Structures are given as C-alpha cells and as structure tokens.
From TrEMBL:
GO terms for cellular component: mitochondrion. Pathway: Amino-acid degradation; L-valine degradation. Residues 201-331 form the 3-hydroxyisobutyrate dehydrogenase-like NAD-binding domain. It comes from the Eukaryota. It comes from Lentinula edodes (Shiitake mushroom). GO terms for molecular function: 3-hydroxyisobutyrate dehydrogenase activity; NAD binding; NADP binding. This is 3-hydroxyisobutyrate dehydrogenase. PANTHER family: 3-HYDROXYISOBUTYRATE DEHYDROGENASE, MITOCHONDRIAL, 3-HYDROXYISOBUTYRATE DEHYDROGENASE-RELATED. Pfam families: NAD_binding_11, NAD_binding_2.
Length: 349
C-alpha cells in the first residue's frame, strides 16, 4: 500500500502523538479491552486522546459513539487505516484474528509510517500486539518494527471475553525488558497478571502451549463425560468425582460440557454453548501449535489428533464453529448416535 500525500504531509505535524493511544481491531476481545483502557486512561488524565480503527468501519464508529455517550468530554477519533492510527499515536495496540491480518496491518500500514516518522517520534513509539498468531510471524514483524527504532512486544491474552470485560486478563509478554517495562502500565489497565515470558515470541510460545493443553483436555473431558453417562452415571455425580480426583482440570470443573453437570456454575453449555471461546479459534490455536512444533521438531501426537477432531467437527457441523469449543461434546454425542444407528441397522455404514 502506498502512503498517500495527505499522510506524508501529516507526518510533519504528527505531534502530540505522546498523549494518544491507538487501538486497531475492535472485535469481541478488542472492543472490551479498548473500552477499559480508554476509560481508565481518561480517568487518569482527561487530556488523553484515543484513536480506534477496524477493517469494518462501523465497528470503530459505534465504539466511538458508545464511548462518547459515557465520557462526553473524551477526545476519541476514528482512523480509517492503520497508517492513520500510527500517525496519531505513540502507543499502538493491535488485537487481530491471526497471522495474515497482523502481517497486513504491520507491513502495509504501521511499519511504512514508522520508517517515515522523525527519529524522535519513532524512538518513542511502542507497538503491542495482543493477537494469538504464529511465533515466527510475530518475531519477524517485531524485528522489522525494532529496526525502525520503535519498541514492540507480543502480548497475547488468557481469560477470554469475560476477562477482557472485567479487565482481569493475563498478558503473556514476549520482548526485551525495556519494551516490557514500557508496555506494563498500559497492559495493567486491561488485565490483572502481566507476565514477562522472555524475548520476542515467548509470550506467544507460552500462550500456544497453554492452549495445546486446553484443546486436548476439553476433548478428553467430553469423552469421559459421554462414556460415564453411557455407563449410567449421573453427570453431576461424575463431574463432582473427577473434579475432586486426579482428573480435575478447568475443562471439567469450570467449562464442563454437559448441561446441569455443574449446578452451581453457568458454563457455556447452559446457554447452548454461546459466549465462550469459539471452536474456530481453538482450531486456529491447535494449528499454531502444530506449526511451531514442526519447526521445533517436537512431537505432539495428542495435539495433532485434537486438531484433526476440531477440524472434522467444524466441517461436519459448521454451526459449532462459533460456539464454545466445549461443544466438541455435542460432536462426540452425534458420532455416538450415528454409530448406534449403524449398529441397529437403521442406517447403512
Ligand atoms: P474477532 O474476530 O472478534 O475480532 C477481530 C477484529 O479485527 C474484527 O473486528 C475485525 O474486523 C478486525 N480486523 C480484521 N482484519 C483487520 C485489519 N486488516 N485491520 C483492522 N481491523 C481488522 O476476534 P477476537 O475474538 O476479538 O480475537 C482476537 C484475538 O484474540 C485472536 O487472535 C484470538 O485468538 C485471541 N483470543 C480470543 C479470545 C476469545 O475468547 N475470543 C480469547 C483469547 C485470545
């Protein structure tokens, strides 16, 4: 993408970027994170300026008008492109779907502007990418950003939309100590735990390893619950036994996939698997684990089996792609019913 003459002219008068923060990517997570960040920054210093940007302009417009309703004095603008968002602010946060979008936003938007800014402005710029994406892509983007003189961290999150809304996210940060220290106060306005995992890419490495465990665990919990129910066990009794035994994990004691198995809690299965972590995102994260494991020469047979199962589920039941990934239980249930029908000779194999 070529930098327009208008933008190049604007570079000469690009101050005061120091008081401004740009947030690019106002989806399910980004919307909540930007809202917390801006409202807290506004409370700290009401001369702060905010810029929002999304590929769907209506998302940014509606964010702005909602924010203005609650904070009428706020200075909040919509940037039409990541270039404009970079010109406007010294702190740039991105929360995008995955590697292709991060490559596009940084290579076509943010980095070309950083290369053209006066040195003092480039040196004071911090890019924080909260997207869950490929480790090697994140490292190469960070290398290009730091070559301009700016700082960058990868800071993927754990905690989901609920954590984003409540500002209780965990940020898993990869980057230099200096970049981490620069990012920490901003991240603390959106989350509770800000963990420096190591150099560039380390935050993503930690996030991908965690989601590898989670993706496998949710499937085996679905398998155990389905098997137990077939053996005649009450789902609430079975959940209570496993939750207080060596099989305990988040997938059974919090994100249990069987309705009424956790009477005192309200996991996504109680809302037809709405409102959790989408199966399509879990499939993406299992793919990220496979990629990085192949690069590292590390066997992940269970991870690969889990990736194949989520892929099959989304192919056969596309309606489950946007539902919580615990809906893999529904897919296992459907498979069991199909097998039973074949066994009874109701349908041919
Ligand atoms: P989302 O799809 O809801 O939001 C992504 C946003 O980015 C959308 O608004 C989209 O329009 C925008 N976008 C896409 N391309 C763009 C571009 N080129 N320029 C500007 N904007 C662009 O996704 P989400 O659920 O908010 O997740 C974001 C990231 O956070 C993903 O990497 C996901 O894996 C990770 N994550 C999500 C959750 C969750 O529970 N949703 C939890 C932890 C981590």
């Amino acid at each position: 993408m070529k930098t327009s003459l208008r933008l190049l002219n604007a570079i000469g008068r690009a101050s005061p970027r120091s008081q401004s923060t740009s947030f690019i990517g106002l989806g399910r997570m980004g919307h909540e994170m930007a809202y917390n960040l801006f409202s807290k920054q506004f409370a700290q210093a009401n001369e702060s300026e905010f810029v929002v940007c999304d590929a769907i302009p209506e998302c940014a417009q509606s964010f702005r008008s909602n924010f203005m309703k609650q904070y009428p004095g706020a200075k909040i603008n919509v940037a039409n492109t990541p270039e404009e968002a970079t010109l406007a602010s010294q702190t740039i946060i991105t929360m995008l779907p995955s590697s292709p979008q991060v490559l596009s936003v940084y290579n076509n938007g943010i980095i070309p502007i950083l290369r053209k800014l006066p040195t003092d402005q480039t040196h004071n710029t911090l890019c924080v990418d909260c997207t869950t994406l490929d480790v090697d892509v994140a490292r190469s983007v960070t290398k290009d950003v730091t070559e301009t003189g700016s700082q960058m961290v990868d800071a993927p999150v754990s905690g989901g939309v609920t954590g984003a809304k409540a500002a209780t996210l965990a940020f898993l940060v990869g980057g230099t100590i200096a970049a981490f220290k620069q990012a920490q106060p901003t991240l603390a306005l959106m989350g509770q735990r800000i963990i420096h995992c190591g150099p560039s890419g380390a935050g993503l490495g930690a996030k991908i390893c965690n989601n590898l465990v989670l993706g496998v665990q949710q499937i085996v919990v679905g398998e155990a619950m389905l098997l137990g129910i077939k053996l005649g066990l009450d789902p609430a009794v079975l959940s209570s036994v496993i939750s207080s035994s060596t099989g305990n994990c988040w997938s059974i004691s919090v994100n249990n996939p069987v309705p009424r198995a956790l009477p005192e809690k309200s996991p996504p299965c109680e809302r037809d698997y709405e409102g959790g972590f989408a199966s399509a995102l879990m499939l993406k994260d299992m793919g990220l684990a496979s990629n990085v494991a192949a690069m590292a020469g590390c066997p992940i047979p269970l991870g690969q089996a889990a990736e194949a199962l989520y892929a099959q589920m989304i192919e056969e039941q596309p309606e489950l792609a946007r539902k919580d990934f615990s809906s893999v239980y529904k897919f296992l249930q459907k498979t069991a019913e199909e097998r039973k029908a074949v066994k009874l000779g109701v349908v041919s194999p």
